[in-house]
């Protein structure tokens, strides 16, 4: 770290910081194995969305601190890349055990900073934990290929090698899962890492970093910096950083994709979504209704795989009454309260934006069949929370702003189509391609849907088809930029480059030189 940085080897990421004394703790940087206080005077408040209390303050990491983090990662790389993959895997084995041990603590932090319910927060951690478990098998995942005797006495083999320093830039909605999509795969492949958590809820990423260090990750292998677009631009521009994983909005994602690509970096960029469900008249009613309610309103609609648009083949009328009943029964409250189904949205600005998209929909002709702006203004004990109740707009058409924009709130849109073909056409005309589901008891309809739908993650009677880590997260169209997806085989390919070796072991004595293009003999 640069001279003048207050380094506290024994103070950790989450304990109270010595400065400033009377206000909430400042989140630290992690540089070269030390949790260090940032010298930056600028910081952003991390606000509990249920109470508006300031949970902590995130510094805007200074340029010197950023450079120190990159240089720590660069310094740690030669030794880490040569550490046997079995040793790297063993650290992940310990890491997954520690995540399980601290699951409740992590979930509490996520609920305090992000707002989701404790149970949902546990799911957030668990879906990330699965990626760590997957990384425990890196020796097999990273295996190369070998062809003996490609020509007489010549063998060719390929090796997957780490890239160097890699970076991850995270969104607010999964404070544990998304950092865990990134650095465990990156570092177990032998890279060193710079992580930038979301400035809205960095706590879980800091706790995970502590656990990774406790698991034995050597100093400098994982570093953490904070901030917003300036830190992001530094990541894009720094020639020492070879690859960037990004998850978040299209505005940020496409900016990062272009800026980092101009510097020759590889980027995987998972972005926004508008996930549709097509509901066929023959769909099994109970299961479909539960799926729509859970996937539409779970996590207050702040999941990139939330089902935000239901297209009813044959009209929505016959479904409306029952959906309204189930959505109305959901309990809106602070995430820490037992029995809560959905907590607040992340910020006051997010709430205002969501409410204005609802109003815009109504003004342009949508029929509000359930209005969560009214029912949830008052949540007893949490009067300052950013609550919006489940909201349903029916008769939505594709020219409405509420349809064109990703709402990212507890709002479900109902559309109609006369036939499966027309429903598929609606989905395929949407610019996003993260996920799409069909609810039907007809194998013929399901197969047609799977074949014709233009979305990267397809659910058949499954509302949020997020693949487990041995597959990849395969959003497409405007929901993804890059060509190697997160985790699974593609994730390992993203974090490694191929070296192809051709070796010759034969007695060449007495042969003359040939200048012709060598061909396989
Ligand atoms: P966001 O884009 O505002 O922020 C994501 C990250 O980018 C943050 O670390 C932030 O500091 C940085 N950032 C924000 N604006 C920037 C800018 N103009 N230039 C450079 N960096 C910038 O996203 P968010 O609000 O935190 O997350 C919600 C979005 O993430 C939604 O669109 C959601 O669909 C998407 N998301 C997608 C997936 C997926 O896998 N496809 C998963 C989760 C979330």
TrEMBL record:
Documented EC number(s): 1.2.1.27
Any single biological process term in GO: L-valine catabolic process
GO cellular component: mitochondrion
Matches recorded under Pfam families: Aldedh (PF00171)
Matching PROSITE patterns: ALDEHYDE_DEHYDR_CYS (PS00070)
Keywords for this protein: NAD, Oxidoreductase
MF term (GO), any: methylmalonate-semialdehyde dehydrogenase (acylating, NAD) activity
Listed InterPro entries: Ald_DH/histidinol_DH, Ald_DH_C, Ald_DH_CS_CYS, Ald_DH_N, Aldehyde_DH_dom, MeMal-semiAld_DH
Residue ranges constituting the Aldehyde dehydrogenase domain according to the UniProt record: 35-501
SUPFAM superfamilies reported in the protein's UniProt record: ALDH-like (SSF53720)
Annotated PANTHER family: MALONATE-SEMIALDEHYDE DEHYDROGENASE, METHYLMALONATE-SEMIALDEHYDE DEHYDROGENASE [ACYLATING], MITOCHONDRIAL
Family under the similarity heading: Belongs to the aldehyde dehydrogenase family.
Name this protein carries in UniProt: methylmalonate-semialdehyde dehydrogenase (CoA acylating)
């Amino acid at each position: 770290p640069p001279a003048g940085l207050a380094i506290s080897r024994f103070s950790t990421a989450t304990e109270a910081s010595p400065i400033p004394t009377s206000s909430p703790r400042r989140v630290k940087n992690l540089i070269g194995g030390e949790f260090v206080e940032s010298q930056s005077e600028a910081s952003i408040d991390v606000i509990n969305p249920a109470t508006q209390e300031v949970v902590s303050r995130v510094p805007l990491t200074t340029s010197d601190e950023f450079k120190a983090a990159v240089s720590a990662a660069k310094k740690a790389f030669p030794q880490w890349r040569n550490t046997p993959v079995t040793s790297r895997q063993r650290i992940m084995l310990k890491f997954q055990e520690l995540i399980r041990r601290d699951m409740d603590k992590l979930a509490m932090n996520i609920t305090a900073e992000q707002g989701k319910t404790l149970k949902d927060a546990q799911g957030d951690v668990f879906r990330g934990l699965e990626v760590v478990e997957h990384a425990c098998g890196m020796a097999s995942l990273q295996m190369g290929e070998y062809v003996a005797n490609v020509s007489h006495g010549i063998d060719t083999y390929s090796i997957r090698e780490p890239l160097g320093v890699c970076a991850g830039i995270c969104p607010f909605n999964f404070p544990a899962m998304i950092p865990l999509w990134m650095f465990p795969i990156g570092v177990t492949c032998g890279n060193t890492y710079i992580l930038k958590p979301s400035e809205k809820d960095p706590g879980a990423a800091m706790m995970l970093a502590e656990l990774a260090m406790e698991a034995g990750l050597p100093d400098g292998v994982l570093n953490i910096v904070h901030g917003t677009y300036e830190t992001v631009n530094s990541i894009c521009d720094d020639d020492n950083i070879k690859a960037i994983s990004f998850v978040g909005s299209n505005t940020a994602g496409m900016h990062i994709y272009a800026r980092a690509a101009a510097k020759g970096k590889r980027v995987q960029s998972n972005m926004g979504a508008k996930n549709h469900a097509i509901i066929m008249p023959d769909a099994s009613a109970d299961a479909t209704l539960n799926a729509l309610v859970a996937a539409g309103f779970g996590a207050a609609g702040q999941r990139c795989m939330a089902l935000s648009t239901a297209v009813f083949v044959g009209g929505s009328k016959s479904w409306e009454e029952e959906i309204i009943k189930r959505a109305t029964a959901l309990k809106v409250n602070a995430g820490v309260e037992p029995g809560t189904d959905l907590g607040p949205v992340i910020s006051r600005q997010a709430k205002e934006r969501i409410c204005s998209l609802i109003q815009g929909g109504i003004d342009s002709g949508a029929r509000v069949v359930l209005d969560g702006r009214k029912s949830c203004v008052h949540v007893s004990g949490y009067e300052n929370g950013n609550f919006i109740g489940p909201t349903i707009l029916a008769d939505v058409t594709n020219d409405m702003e509420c349809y064109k924009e990703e709402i990212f709130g507890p709002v479900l849109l109902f559309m109609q189509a006369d036939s499966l073909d027309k429903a598929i056409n609606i989905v395929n005309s949407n610019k996003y391609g993260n996920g799409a589901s069909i609810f039907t008891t007809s194998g013929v309809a399901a197969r047609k849907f799977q074949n014709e739908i233009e979305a990267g993650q397809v659910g058949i009677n499954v509302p949020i088809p997020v693949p487990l880590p041995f597959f990849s997260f395969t959003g497409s169209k405007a929901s993804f930029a890059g060509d190697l997806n997160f985790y699974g085989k593609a994730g390992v390919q993203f974090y490694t480059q191929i070296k192809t070796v051709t070796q010759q072991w034969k007695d060449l004595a007495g042969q003359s030189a040939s200048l012709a293009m060598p061909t396989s003999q």
